[in-house]
Amino acid sequence: MTSIAFGGGPTLEQRRAFAGLKYGTHVPGYRGYCPQIKYRVGRTYGDNTNELAQTWDHKQPAEPVGYVPIGVQQSRLPDSSGDNRYTKKMVPGYTGYIPRMVFKYGNTYKEGCDVCIDEFLTTKDGLDIKRVDLQRTVRSYPKLQAVAQDPKVRDELNKYRDTHPTRPLFMEDRKAFTEPPIPGYKGFIPRIGTTELGLGGRYHTTTKNGLESFAKETMHHFAVQQEPIKVERGDDLVKMPSYARRLYLHDGMIPKYTGYCPQRRFNFGNTYGDTTRSLNVCKHDMACYGDFANTMRQSAPV
Questions:
Q1: pTM for the whole thing?
Q2: Tell me, what's the pLDDT at 64?
């Protein structure tokens, strides 16, 4: 007798006879769904499932071939091809999304899936038919023609110009920036949400004040940006060459200066100002550290 792994082994009847199970009895340990099993107590699992199997065999006949749940068209449910997602005979335990499944109650998983898939496919096909019908209707109507070159439009505009010489023909001027919007406008209005301009007034008044204040600030900043930059320097700085700009001052560096100071990390026990004043880059009186280094190099013994 070949093993079960290679397609052989005992048949279902032989294994049932070997275990001594009655007809309809589930093997103890079976964790699948068994109707009404949770309402039975006091007997073994085998006896309860045997009685339930006999009861259900008399009360509920087997489903006929080609059985389809109520409300489901058999032709609507596609067969599984390995790529399609929604098919008939959905396996319980599938955790993916099934359209409208959350609104179905009282049926088995298979029946609920079949009904939902049928409704989904029917609705989808109906919308596709409506879309195609709308496209066909749109194509059947003639296309709109531009009226810019229509002589009738030209004559009407000339007539309007003759009868209304003072009014502009088109809206040539844009709306003023400081003109408040109509009540109900939900867009952003500057300077009325975080200042006193938006308190204690009507919408028209507050929006006008906010827009005028914002316009004044904008014009002020624009005027400041247009002014030329004036740099006042002393005579000693003007006479210095372009490379002579001291970064490390003779008076020392200000505390909390986060820049780099050479040899600073090797000094301890003094304040930040005393430490920086004692460094070579700060204690010299030259225009820059390069001049100081050249002087020290020239004065060094050969």
A1: 0.28
A2: 47
